[in-house]
Structure formats: structure tokens, C-alpha cells
Amino acid sequence: EVICENNANKGKISEVQKALKTAGFDPGTTDGNFDGGTLKALNDYQKAKNLTVNEDKHIFVETVSSLDVSK
Questions:
Q1: DSSP secondary structure string, 41-69?
Q2: What's the confidence (pLDDT) of residue 4?
Q3: N or C: which terminus of the chain has fewer CB atoms within 10 Å of its end residue's CB?
């Protein structure tokens, strides 16, 4: 399940970026922009946690839950 565009606003993406950074996967900035650094950190986190890895700019609910970020 993918977080819908209504919930994937800059604030939510920033929360995910901060959670990734806290978990040791540096997305670069935590400005809420979903850029290459965020995608790499997200994919690295997903691989390390044996979660479904996405190759595009979708954020899966299982990843968000694993990061303790609310949907």
C-alpha cells in the first residue's frame, strides 16, 4: 500500500527524512523535497529492514510504519 498524494505532502516527507536520518540513513536535507538523496536513503533503509524496495518516488505504508511515522 502506498501513501496517497494527499498524505505525502512536504511535512510528511520531511518527517520521513528525519526518521531516516535518525535510523542512520542520511537523506541529505530534511526539507520535505523528495530528491535523489531521499530515494537512496529510503531504498537503503528498505533493503536493510527487508521491506519492499521501491524504485520510484512512492512511499509504502509498511516503510512509514517501520520508521514510526504516522500515516
A1: HHHHHHHHTTPPPPSSS--BHHHHHHTT-
A2: 47
A3: N
